[in-house]
Design a protein that fits this description.
By secondary structure, this protein is α/β, with parallel strands linked by helices. The protein has a single domain, classed as NAD(P)-binding Rossmann-like Domain (Rossmann fold), CATH 3.40.50.720. It has 11 helices and 9 strands. It has helices at about 25-35, 45-60, 75-90, 110-140, 160-180, 200-205, 215-225, 230-240, 250-265, 265-280, 285-290; strands at about 15-20, 40-45, 60-70, 95, 100-105, 145-150, 185-190, 205, 245-250. The strands form 2 sheets. A 7-stranded parallel beta sheet has the order 3-2-1-4-6-7-9, sandwiched between helices. A two-stranded parallel sheet has the order 5-8. α3 packs parallel to α4 (about 110-140), α4 (about 110-140) packs parallel to α5 (about 160-180) and α9 (about 250-265) packs across α10 (about 265-280). The longest helix is centred in the middle third of the chain and has 29 residues, at about 110-140. The radius of gyration is 20 Å and the shape is globular. The chain binds nicotinamide-adenine-dinucleotide. Nicotinamide-adenine-dinucleotide binds next to α1, α4 and α6. Nicotinamide-adenine-dinucleotide binds near residues 19, 25, 44 and 120.
């Protein structure tokens, strides 16, 4: 049985990073570039992406491409992959980092939210895998695929049903590919971050909860207190790739709750029930906002990027 090619060092490796304009993706790209990788960057935010690429190039990094792309659009990803592969060859490492977050109850989430989460967080990485992995297989050099899921791809966090649909989906894809791709010497890492202090903590929408409300600000402050930096998360990811680890955690709390879920299932159930009770304390507020006519009070009218 072929052994996975270990990416022990990044110098000279062709590395594709999605979501490279911000947060974890940007930190992952910066660290790869600093180690001498040839980086290919993509994100839906063209201006921010160009700024990241310019800054990296100014620091002497090799940024081979930086193209804006909506990963939920298969044709766009297909064209991007064709262009990059024709000009630069197959990748050595592909990192699916881009994603969005939207939480809510079954009553407050709208169909559009479920749809967009699956389109971006699940179909996005699938499009990237469809278009960038076959050239890697064909090139025969082996390599590594990184899929950034979430703690919400492991456990049943309150109000995360739609987000978890996308993140558990990505976990399913990864679980199969870790065995399927081994014969091509391609390793797979599934990254399950807990809190990471990125702009996602600002852009996250909670259906029915006003972002200026005390409940939202309290939840946001609690989240930030436990969060690691994007740079810490990126270091954990590269460490996981270099060690060819399948499960990659970016903070110890998620490793712990995953252990609890597997080895002390009743403890896990109690912990999740307590978490759910805590979150649902603000349900009356959500219900009030849901019933109110004023669009400002109804965050369901927020655009889902
Ligand atoms: N920050 C956290 O606490 C946390 C926790 C668990 C999982 N995650 C996951 O980590 C990943 C990175 O998130 P982050 O925290 O760095 O957030 P972020 O918002 O800082 O970065 C996400 C990037 O993805 C890009 N993006 C969004 N939709 C896109 C699309 N359709 N096409 C292309 N690019 C798109 C955004 O423009 C942005 O630059 C996401 O998949 C997220 O679900 C984050």
């Amino acid at each position: 049985m072929a052994r996975v090619r270990r990416i022990r060092e990044l110098r000279g490796q062709r590395v594709l990073v999605t979501g490279a304009a911000s947060g974890i993706g940007r930190a992952v790209a910066e660290q790869a570039a600093a180690e001498g990788a040839i980086v290919h960057l993509t994100d839906i935010q063209a201006e921010l992406l160009a700024e990241v690429a310019d800054r990296l190039r100014a620091a002497g990094a090799v940024v081979a491409s930086a193209d804006a792309c909506d990963l939920s659009d298969y044709e766009a990803v297909h064209d991007l992959a064709q262009r990059i592969t024709a000009e630069h060859g197959a990748m050595d490492v592909v990192l699916n980092v881009a994603g969005i977050a939207f939480w809510g109850t079954v009553s407050s989430l709208e169909h559009e939210h479920w749809r967009r989460l699956v389109d971006v967080n699940l179909m996005g990485p699938i499009h990237v895998i469809e278009c960038f992995l076959p050239p890697m297989v064909e090139a025969g050099r082996g390599g590594h695929l990184v899929n950034v899921s979430s703690a919400a791809g492991i456990i049943g966090m309150p109000w995360h049903a739609a987000y978890s649909a996308s993140k558990f989906g990505l976990r399913g894809v990864s679980e199969v590919l870790r065995f399927d791709l081994r014969r091509y010497r391609i390793g797979v890492s599934l990254v399950c971050p807990g809190g990471v202090a990125t702009p996602l903590t600002e852009t996250v929408h909670i259906a029915g909860i006003d972002k200026a409300s005390r409940s939202f600000l309290r939840a946001q402050a609690g989240f930030r207190k436990r969060a690691v930096t994007p740079e810490q998360a990126a270091s954990s990811i590269w460490d996981g790739v270099k060690r060819n680890r399948y499960w990659v955690y970016t903070s110890p709390d998620i490793r712990l709750i995953h252990l609890l879920q597997r080895y002390v299932p009743w403890g896990y159930t109690l912990a999740m029930r307590a978490m759910s009770t805590g979150a649902n304390r603000v349900l009356p507020e959500v219900e009030r906002a849901r019933r109110a006519d004023a669009p400002a009070a109804d965050s369901r009218s927020n655009a889902v990027r």
